[in-house]
Every structure is written in C-alpha cells, then in structure tokens.
Amino acid sequence: MNAPQSAQHGLGRDHALHLLRQMLRIRRFEEKCAEQYSAGKIRGFVHLYIGQEAVAVGAMQALQPEDAIVATYREHGHALVRGVSAASIMAEMYGKVEGCSHGRGGSMHLFDAATRFYGGNAIVGGGLPLAVGLALADQLQGRNCVTACFFGEGAVAEGEFHESMNLAALWHLPVLFCCENNLYAMGTALARSESETDLCLKATSFEIPAWPVDGMDVLAVEAAAQHAATAVRGGGGPHFLEFRTYRFRAHSMFDPELYRDKQEVEEWKKRDPIPGFSASLKERGLLTDSDVRQVEEEVATEVTKAVDFAEAGTWEPVEDVTRYVYSEAAR
Ligand SMILES: Cc1ncc(C[n+]2csc(CCOP(=O)(O)OP(=O)(O)O)c2C)c(N)n1
Ligand SMILES: [Mg+2]
C-alpha cells in the first residue's frame, strides 16, 4: 500500500500551532525530567522520548476521546498529548500520591483510565496483547473504538508480537499498530537481531495493511495515522504503521551509548522534528517568531507548575504499603 500524502496545503495556523505546542510540551517536560533526575528528585528508570515527539503528536491527532491507547516505558509524551496533565505525570515521576498512578508506577507505568490511557508497560512487547484484548472487548461490546498500540521495533523479536498480530488479523480487531522504529533496542541495532528487517513485510505477512512513514515529520505522521485510523474505525481491521524515527538521548539514564557513533546522532539531529517544523511554518507565513516565543513561555509555565505540584505532593503512608497488593480483609 502507498503511504498517504501529508495534508500540508490545507494546514491552518491554529492546527500548526497546536502541533508545535504539543511537541514542545513533550520536549521541555522531558528536559526538566532529566534535570530532576540528576538532582535526585526522580529515581528508578527514566526513558526519554526526545527526538521522537512527532510520532506521538502526529498519531494522536487521529484518535477520538473514546479510543484506547497502550504504550511502552517511553511514554511520557503519549500521556501528555493524550491529555494526562503534566502535573500528575511529574508527580508520578516523583512517586507522589498525587501522580496519575498514585505514585505506585513511576516513569514507566503512567496510567489514566479517564482518557483510556492504559499504560506505560515495562515489558518489551507487553502492550501488544493488552491492545488486542482491549480491541476485542470493544468489538464484543459493540463500541466503535480504535485501540492505538505504540511499541518499539525491538518488540518484533518477541513472540507476543507475532501472536498479537495474528489474532488481531484473524479476528479483524480495531487495532492501530504504531511501531516506533528508532533503529535500536537498547544497544542492539535491528539488523543484529532480525533476519528480516522490513517491518512492514512482517505485518503484511499477517494480512495486515502496513506502510512506512517518516517519523520525523509530524504532518506525514498525522496524515498516515488519519488514513489508517479511518480505515480501522470503518471496519477495515488492524493496520500497521512503521514510523522511522530516532531517539536523540541515551536509551535510559544509565546508558553510555557505546553502540552508535556520535556522528550518526548528529546527522539525525539535523532532522529534529521541532525546529524543522517551526522553521517551515515561519517560511510559509503561518507563524512568527513572537508566536513561537509565546508558545515557549506557556510551555515553560506549565512545566514549572508541574514541578511545583510534584514538590508539594505527598508520600503514601507506610501503613498503606500492602494496599492494592493483597485483597482487603472484610471488615
Ligand atoms: C521482555 C523484555 N525483555 C527485555 C527487556 C529489557 N529491555 C528494556 S528496553 C529494551 C529495548 C527495547 O527496544 P525497543 O522496543 O526498540 O524500544 P525503544 O527502547 O527503542 O523505545 C529491552 C531489551 C524488557 N524490558 N522486557
Ligand atoms: Mg527501538
């Protein structure tokens, strides 16, 4: 199947600003997370999404409030764009009760039932069967919803990937598989773990329509996601998008990055989805420098408030440590 063309010509100022704002929210939020991590305020594992923002932002434009989302441990951006507040995400990163998972999950386990954001999953490939189950539930209960499942290319090495693709196709389930191919699974390049590196071919082998998309171009991502989500929503069964992207930072906060050249990282940074998009909008007369400054200021305020909220948050009392672990005794 051919990749749908991006709808550049019909792009209005408000929507352009919205896309830019969402990408900047993720970028600035995560830069602050890195800072707070170094300051010892955030602990445990933290995986930054910096460089990949165009994928979550573009793809999420195709989803409706009733749709479901499943993501990985690199999910701060997906949660933010979906509408989970920056404050409740930051509080979760701190481990405070006011966090979206009540401080029990941390960075890798953001969760928000109200927006149908079903995590945050630390297990590579673990979100895929969950997404298939959510879509099956929607289908059986007659709800016309899409489940968007975001996962890294490392997940295709897992049995769960193949089982999930098979069942989704066999049962014609409304799943939009969003594979974020950033070329590495921790330190393992795709070609070192896969005999077949064409990920779309893997999807089409299950009879699932699939195409590759430039994941550094938010408009291309949005156009592809709209096209695929419309097909899924219209009863077309599962669809698969391979977003070709790159993470600019280390895998997690503990990674010395010995597996890739600095030169390669620098080359990809030339395609940074944020300054490139912002420059093209200015060139086309859709935005001015002062618009961009204003968005930056609004985003900075939101991030500062999120940190203040997390700082002011409370720790769960130690007496509650077994809560949600064992069933409560009948009183
Ligand atoms: C089942 C399982 N195996 C191994 C790991 C260790 N692990 C954590 S992240 C990761 C790499 C996953 O890479 P990818 O799916 O490409 O996602 P990315 O980190 O690039 O976003 C691995 C192997 C894990 N969390 N779960
Ligand atoms: Mg990867």
Write a short abstract of this structure.
The chain is an alpha/beta fold and 331 residues long. The chain has helices at residues 13-38, 53-60, 76-82, 86-94, 127-140, 159-170, 190-193, 199-204, 218-236, 262-269, 273-283, 289-312; strands at residues 68-70, 147-152, 175-181, 184-185, 188-189, 210-214, 239-244.
Walk me through the structure:
The chain is 45% helix and 9% strand. It has twelve helices and seven strands. The strands form two sheets. It has a five-stranded parallel beta sheet with strand order 1-2-3-7-6, sandwiched between helices. The chain has a two-stranded antiparallel ribbon with strand order 4-5. α2 runs parallel beside α3, α2 (53-60) crosses α9 (218-236) and α5 runs parallel beside α6. The longest helix has 26 residues, at 13-38. The chain starts with 12 loop residues before the first helix and ends in a 19-residue tail after the last helix. The mean pLDDT is 95. The protein binds thiamine diphosphate and magnesium ion. Thiamine diphosphate (TPP) is lined by residues 72, 74, 122-124, 152-155, 182, 184-186, 251. The site of thiamine diphosphate has 14 residues, from β4.
